[in-house]
Design brief:
Distance between the termini of chain A: 39 Å
Distance between the termini of chain B: 69 Å
Order of helices and strands of chain A: HH
Helix content of chain B: over 70%
Largest sheet of chain B: none
CATH architecture of chain B: Up-down Bundle
CATH superfamily of chain B: Amino acid/polyamine transporter I
Strand content of chain B: under 5%
Order of helices and strands of chain B: HHHHHHHHHHHHHHHHHHH
Number of helices of chain A: 2
Helix content of chain A: over 70%
Largest interface: A-B, 22 and 27 residues
Strand content of chain A: under 5%
Shape of chain B: globular
Structural class of chain A: mainly alpha
Radius of gyration of chain A: 19 Å
Shape of chain A: flat
Largest sheet of chain A: none
CATH topology of chain B: Amino acid/polyamine transporter I
Number of strands of chain A: 0
Structural class of chain B: mainly alpha
CATH class of chain B: Mainly Alpha
Oligomer: heterodimer
Chain lengths: 58, 422
């Protein structure tokens, strides 16, 4: 139990340490990150769709 | 200055450069040659068997692709003294950091399983049971990594890189037609037109040339070796030589299978080795030894890429220059990844085909993100200073990265939906 607590406190510490991005958030950077989010979202949708179709076949 | 004095002066200068290169050489060579892992050998063997020498020109195009992507990690590592995972966390925040780290962990573990599959299949040709191969590999890799010195680890890894050159004598032993290689292989052509099958194979060749773990591995390796800004030039040369060697090895594999197995259906490199043994025992044996070595090199680098990344983020000591007592979590995570991946091929009925498929799909989620982060980080002038990307470097790397993202996405999607591009 203590180890699990230590693990989660470590995760919280990491999240705090890296809470603020240090890279300058120019328009180019913001656009790239937004595009990346859309790309990954579409990929996840495709994977979920595939998973559901496979489940239906099974 | 007379002629001989000038000649001596020039020789001394070149020799000094060579000596400096030999000190700095390592990360670029190891990552590039390890790129020809078990999956890579299978892809090249299948390319040669299916299309003969016709796609050698395409492999040559992959030299600048591999070089331009990987040299950015050299600059980033040498300037920031941070691994790729830490750089992403710090520059883009915890969300993108966790995404990259967890994705890397999954991709690396799955890829490691495919390396073990390749190694066990390779040694089974010589009658070695799979369980014995796994035990031997885990022991060997533990000895290499746990020695407590980066220098020793790197030199041993370079030794295994040398063994990867076994495909060169194999190619000469099959007596290929040089005229056919020149006329069919060096002139760009698409045999039979751009069919779905050819497109899939081209994408597989690109996919095997640039893998997510390579970015994380080389940057961490540059940091662990302690390369400085002044070493960047030699680090880039090291990467360029590595890119040439890795593509050269790929071409020699294509020549071997293109000469002896042209038209044979090849699903994996072990099948190619078995078929080659029927025609030429030594060439088949060389193919099997090369496959084992490729799997081993891949496993060495991939397992380290994960451990380095975790060490960077969790703040554990994470250098190969540390003893086990000083960096227990670094070595525990290394061994944990290695042993759990090694056990999978031993499980009867393990879904190995599904795992191979899954590697391609998950890699597609990580690779574009890691590449985009790489370019953005190289444009952060505040951190990179004079080593930031120039306009020309941005144009070249953006074209390469854009092409890789489009093609690898199509590769991943076609792995999910095999008939989508028909």
């Amino acid at each position: 139990m203590r180890t699990i607590n230590q693990f989660f406190s470590k995760i919280r510490e990491i999240n705090q340490r890296y809470a603020k991005p240090t890279v300058e958030m120019s328009r180019g950077v913001k656009f790239s990150l937004a595009l990346l989010r859309v790309y990954l979202f579409l990929l996840v949708v495709l994977m979920v769709y595939k998973f559901i179709t496979v489940l239906k076949v099974v | 200055m007379d002629f001989f004095s000038l000649l001596y002066y020039r020789f001394k200068k070149v020799w000094k450069a060579v000596r400096l290169y030999l000190v700095i050489a390592g990360p670029g060579l190891v990552v590039m040659i390890a790129d020809n892992d078990a999956g890579g050998i299978t892809t090249y063997a299948a390319t040669g068997a299916k299309y003969g020498y016709h796609l050698i020109w395409f492999l040559l195009l992959l030299i600048p692709v591999a070089y331009y992507v990987q040299e950015m990690t050299v600059r980033l590592g040498a300037v920031t003294k941070r691994g790729h995972a830490e750089a992403i966390f710090e520059s883009f925040g915890a969300f993108w950091g966790w995404f990259s780290l967890l994705d890397l962990m999954i991709v690396d573990w799955l890829t490691l399983v495919t390396e073990f599959v390749g190694m066990t299949a390779a040694l089974s040709i010589f009658g070695v049971p799979a369980w014995l191969t796994v035990i031997l590999v885990v022991l060997l890799m533990s000895i290499i990594v746990l020695n407590g010195r980066y220098w020793t680890w790197e030199k041993i890894a370079l030794g295994f890189c040398l063994l990867n050159l076994i495909y060169i004598p194999a190619a000469f032993m099959v007596n290929p037609s040089i005229a056919d290689i020149a006329s069919h292989g060096l002139i760009p052509n698409l045999p039979g037109g751009l069919t779905n099958e050819l497109f899939f194979l081209l994408m597989a060749n690109i996919g095997t040339t640039i893998a997510p773990w390579m970015l994380f591995f080389q940057q961490s390796s540059v940091v662990d070796k302690g390369l400085q800004e002044k070493d960047i030039k030699m680090g880039k040369i090291d990467t360029f030589i590595g890119a040439i060697i890795t593509v050269a090895i790929a071409i020699f594999i294509v020549i071997v299978t293109g000469t002896l197995l042209n038209g044979a259906p090849i699903d994996d490199a072990a099948t190619a080795a078995k078929l080659l043994m029927k025609t030429n025992h030594y060439v088949g044996a060389f193919m099997a030894i090369g496959l084992f070595d490729a799997g081993l090199l891949g496993a060495i680098c991939i397992s380290l890429a994960s451990s380095w990344a975790f060490g960077e983020i969790f703040g554990w000591a994470h250098s190969l220059n540390t003893k086990v007592k000083e960096a227990p979590w670094f070595y525990i995570s290394f061994l944990f990844t290695l042993i759990t991946a090694g056990v999978v091929p031993l499980i009867p009925g393990a879904p190995l085909v599904l795992i191979t498929l899954f590697v391609q799909v998950v890699a597609v989620t990580l690779l574009p993100a890691a590449l985009v982060f790489l370019i953005l980080l190289l444009n952060d002038k505040k951190t990179m200073g004079e080593y930031a990307n120039t306009r020309l470097q941005n144009i070249i790397s953006s074209v390469i990265v854009g092409s890789i993202i489009i093609l690898s996405t199509m590769y991943g999607v076609s792995a999910l939906f095999p008939n989508i591009f028909q």
